[in-house]
Structures are given as C-alpha cells and as structure tokens.
Amino acid sequence: MNRPLRGLRPRLIVAFVLVAAVATTATGALTLREARTGILRQSQDAVIHQLRTRVSQQAPALRYPPARADLRAFADGIAEADGRWRVLAEYRDLGAGDRLDELTPEIRESVSDSRATVFQRVRADGRTSLLVGMSVVFTDRSTTASGVRVFLSVPQTVEQRSVDALVTGVERAMLGALVLAVALALFAARGVLVPVRALRQATRRIAEGRLDTRLAVHGSDELADLSHTFNETAAALEASVAELREMEARARRFTADVSHELRTPLAAMSAVTDVLDEDAARLDPDTATAVRLISEETGRLASLVDDLMEISRFDAGAAAVHRDVIDLAESIRRTLAARGWTDAVEAQLPYPVRADVDPRRVDVVVANLVGNALRHGERPVSVRLASDGREAVIEVRDSGPGIAGDVLPYVFDRFFKSDSARTRSEGSGLGLAITAENVRAHGGSVHAANHPAGGAVFTVALPLTHESPPPEPEQP
Questions:
Q1: The model scores a pTM over 0.85
Q2: At the fourth CATH level, which superfamily is domain 324-463?
C-alpha cells in the first residue's frame, strides 16, 4: 500500500507538474486540432478546385447523352491531373473509370440531389482517402444538369505524414514543457522550503529551551513576515520565561529562607512541648488538653517545615543521593517496624532484592506511601516487592474507595489535596511530591492507579544497578 505524499517538497513538485501537464496537454491538443484541420482543409480545397477546373476543361468534349466510351475518356481526362487520382464517371446506369469500393451510397445520393460539390473522408484498409463528388453542368443560356456524375478518390498519405510529424512535434514540445516545469518546481520548492526548514529548526530549538533562537529575515514577502513574527514571538517568550524563572527563583529562596528561619524557634518550642507533655498528667483537664493540642500542632508544623526544606533542596539541585547496596525487603520491614505498622500492613516480601539505592530516601518513599494509604484508604493495606533482575517494583495498595479519575493526574503535585475522593488530609500536601522527587533522584518512576478489585495502588519502579538473585520459591 503506497503511503501518501507527506512532505511539502514532493507536493509542490507534483502540483507544478500537474498544472504544467494539464496546460501543456490542453494547448497541444488545441494546437494539433487546429493544425490538422488547416492541413486537411488546405488539401481538400486544393483538390476540389483542381477537380472543378479539370471537369470544366473536359466537359465541352463530352457527347450528350454519353456512351460508356465517352464516360471512360472523360474520367481518364480528369485523372490525368494527378497520378494519385482515381476517377469514376457515371451517367444513369452507365459507369466508367476506376472502381471506388470506398464510395458510399450517401455520397451518390448527395451528388444526385444537389449541384454542390460533396466531399467526405473515409478510412479503409488502414488508409485515409478524400472522396469528392459533383454533378457535371452544361452551361448555355441556362444552367442545366447533364446527369453526369464524377467521383474522385484521393489518398491522404502526404497529409497524414504531415499530421504525424505535427503530433511528434507536439509530443516533444510537451515533454520539454514538463521537464521545464519540473525544473521550475524544484527551484520554486527550494525558495519556499528553505525558509520553512529554517523555521522548523528554529521551532525545535525553542522547544529544546534555546529561547535566544532567531531567524534571518530576507525580502518582504509572506515568508519574511512569518520569520519576523516568529522573532517577535520568540523575544516575547524569552522575556516571559526569564521573568517566570526569576519569580520562581525568588519563591524558592523565600520558601527555603522561611523554612530555615523557622527551624530554630520550632526546635525550642518542641523542647518546651516535650516538657509540658511529661507534666500534662498533673495538670487540670482543660490545661492538659490545651497542652496536648499545642504539642500536636507544633509537631505538625515541624513536619511541614522539614518537608519544605526537603522540597527546597530538590528545587536547588542540592538533594544528594548517598547510595549503598542494601536488601530492599529488609529495608521495607524496618520502615514498617520503626513506625509501628507491622500489624497494620500486610508485607509480601518473598525474597531478598539487593539494590544500589539511598537507604534514607527509600525509607521516606515507603513511609510516605504506606502512611498515605493508612490515612486516606481503608485497611487492609499491603506492600509487595518484586523484581525481574533489571528493576525492583514496590507496590502499595489499600482497600479504600480508590482515587477519582479527575484527581489521578494531580496526586503527585505539591500541596494538592482532594476533598471529594478521600478523607481530608491533615498533612502538608507535600508527602507524595517528595516521594516522586526521591524516586526520580534514583532514576525510577512512580504512578498511581485504581486496582480493578478496589482501592488505590501506588507503584514504584527502581532500576537495579546491583544484580539481584533470581526469585526464590515461596514457602508454603
């Protein structure tokens, strides 16, 4: 199956060639028709004039009424005008001269019914001939039809050769015109495509982030206007992106500075709330409740500041990955045990999977995903680890209502919270964003989905730079 022409260059060439072919064919056909008509008409007029002249010369010697011998002599006298002529003379039922098999009844009837000269071109045995018929008229004081009819057959060989030569000339002219059209099409396509290609390359450079790309403007046609417009658009885009980057940099610096400045007073507040928590049992109930509330909010604020500091390090490119070869299965067990989730989470860790990763960041990834499942989903929550020797896959699934379809694309965005799909979060809205950054720092990927059987599923894929042993069979 042939594919359609996709490029602008072949389409331009095809368009030029088609236009040239149609114009050349139409012009050649009209020229050929007019020239052929002119050649045949000139030959026809010459033959008819010559025939009339010979008939006028031979008619006075014709006896009336003529006998067969008289008709033969009359026909031979006319045929002497041209060696190619074949002449038949008839008078009533008598006929003399050459046998004209191509003579049609229509011509005989036309000659009998009219004193005008009748002619027709006929083709027989692959040859074209001109048939001419006329009545012989005696002229004295009045014009009287003699009843003698003369029929002439002249082969059109010379004329056909002229027409054939004309056809050959027209075909050659058409071929030359098509070649010229292709050359002009290539030249025109180059004039159009060079600026278009430059525009395409410039657009690609803009897409790659090279916003200082500009086009050279030549001439004053539409392509020059397009290049000028592109340059103006690129300049405006460069200015807008520079402004946005500056605003983003200021926002990141502000977040990092605020987070850094809050750490010291929060550390002092945390120390005070720890002391107050120890004495809360000896305080009256209302005071104890207030103390616990202050302690909880101080801890939540400290967690938010830590998350902001972590995000700031990722934004600044200062988040270092300290790799070590560890057993991911054992690392997950430790994460669950350290947070008291061993009984609340079903861990499916059938065999060791050794990987070259940052243990602290893997701990953060697992803790954020499991904590998110416990807070927003429903139990049971499961953690599954698998490996194919090239990458390790950590899957965290809950048994809740799942995530709404319109929310799924945004679950890893910063500060994003969904009120409709799940219980309102009391966290910072940065946990899943930090998880995604930590996974990307390892060259891996993470995505969220809904399990067909119900519940949300978060899947983390980490490349294994350390070869893992093949899976061991599970123990019954």
A1: no
A2: Histidine kinase-like ATPase, C-terminal domain (3.30.565.10)
